[in-house]
Write a structure and sequence with these properties.
Layout lengths: L1 E5 L3 H12 L3 E5 L3 H8 L10 H10 L3 E4 L2 H6 L3 E4 L14 H13 L4 E5 L7 H12 L6 E5 L9 H6 L4 E4 L3 H11 L9 E4 L1 H32 L3 H9 L20 H14 L5 H13 L2 H7 L8 E5 L14 H11 L3 E5 L4 H7 L3 E4 L2 H5 L4 E4 L11 H7 L4 E4 L6 H6 L3 E3 L4
Parallel strand pairs: 1-2, 1-4, 2-3, 4-5, 5-6, 7-8, 9-10, 9-12, 10-11, 12-13, 13-14
Helix pairs in contact: 1-3, 5-6, 9-11, 9-12, 11-12
The structure holds nicotinamide-adenine-dinucleotide.
The site of nicotinamide-adenine-dinucleotide has 26 residues, from helix 1 and helix 5.
Length: 431
Amino acid sequence: MKLTIAGTGYVGLVTGTGFANLGNDVICFDIDKAKINLLADGVLPIYEPGLEEIYKRNLKAGRLEFITDAKKAVRESDIIFICVNTPINEHQEADLTAVKEVARAIGQYMNDYKIVVNKSTVPVGTADFVKKIIKENQQKKIEFDVVSNPEFLREGAAVKDFENPDRIVIGSESKKAEEIMTSLYRSRARADRPIMITNIRTAEIIKYASNAMLATRISFMNQLSYLCEKTGADIKAVARGMGFDGRIGSRFLQAGLGYGGSCFPKDIKALISMLKQNDCDSDLFEAVNRINEKQKSVVVKKLKSVIEIKDSTIAVWGISFKPKTDDIREAPSIIIIEELQNMGAKIHACDPVAIENAKNVLNDVMFFENPYETIRDCDALIVATEWNEFRNLDMRAVKILLKNPIIIDGRNIYDPKEMTDLGFKYMGIGR
Ligand SMILES: NC(=O)c1ccc[n+]([C@@H]2O[C@H](COP(=O)([O-])OP(=O)(O)OC[C@H]3O[C@@H](n4cnc5c(N)ncnc54)[C@H](O)[C@@H]3O)[C@@H](O)[C@H]2O)c1
């Protein structure tokens, strides 16, 4: 099948490459010329484990094309996936500007039947909105269908998630579109990981509901972490004790610095707006959001309780919003670093892959590739991202290199007793 992917970011690139790898011809279309030039030249602009190999293989095989020509992108495909960014706007709603632009181009250049797939995370009702924009821009009446096919991939494991999704949700009100989409996805479905066909609005809500549930679990544990600290309990053991309960499960129960990234923060805010617009109560998700905002600063408060931050030098291990990605959007580390700088601290920071992205948003930070070099003569160390690279280091050497043996472990990756026995002043979250 001939597919167009509109928007070649984290989702679009993984989706386009993944479909090319299944034997489809894929046009990746983006308005960012620099990005498209890099991609056409064989340079992958993002870090995502496993992506480079399949991208290079399929580019070489001629199954992947990178273009900025909207007309060609629309005309030469049967199915057009909208994978553009949907950030939060000043009213705390999902900004559909890019979605609207793509829909306008589809209407304008459409030459025969197309399936238009909303893969970007978009509020309930957006499929109708896309349909309306396409119709308004058609030169003559041509049949088309809009379906909702939300994306659930996790950055850092996106290639695996494309190949082995937990489920594939297709919201469709057209039998023809449903059949074509099912045949496109059939090879990836399994008995216990089905293709689920729903109506369009249900599919649109499944995406927000899923992210909101995961974010709620994180805020739930973060709120409990305060009680653990006050009473001498350990939130990690509490999470373990909860997780063995089959009704609860063990995932997404880590207390820490809160959730970040390009999805959960904006999706919770957009869900709150959607609920309000539909005269529904949004108390639960407002609390989830509020707890998360507060959580990002918790390590700064802890640090302030043990050292004078003004004129200190603080080392930060981990910049990306989570391990195995170079994505720093809404990363707690950025807020922590800026807060410390405002209080007069100098920052040394280290990350296995996110330094280049961090240089674009952070000023006056000294970046290091090596975690040991990062901490030399620093007054304290903050662990902001739980990269495996930080888990098994020589903590005796760490103690020698730091000016003061202070670790604020924002991701609870170390054992408090071991750290205390080594002579560190160690503070985790909720322990
Ligand atoms: N990143 C994730 O982990 C993830 C997971 C699931 C869902 N989503 C959702 O998928 C969507 C895309 O997310 P992302 O992280 O890939 O975003 P991104 O910012 O990495 O990429 C978006 C791309 O769209 C391009 N674009 C903008 N306007 C365009 C236009 N008019 N025509 C063509 N291209 C255009 C941008 O140049 C950019 O390359 C969002 O709605 C997001 O919420 C993201």
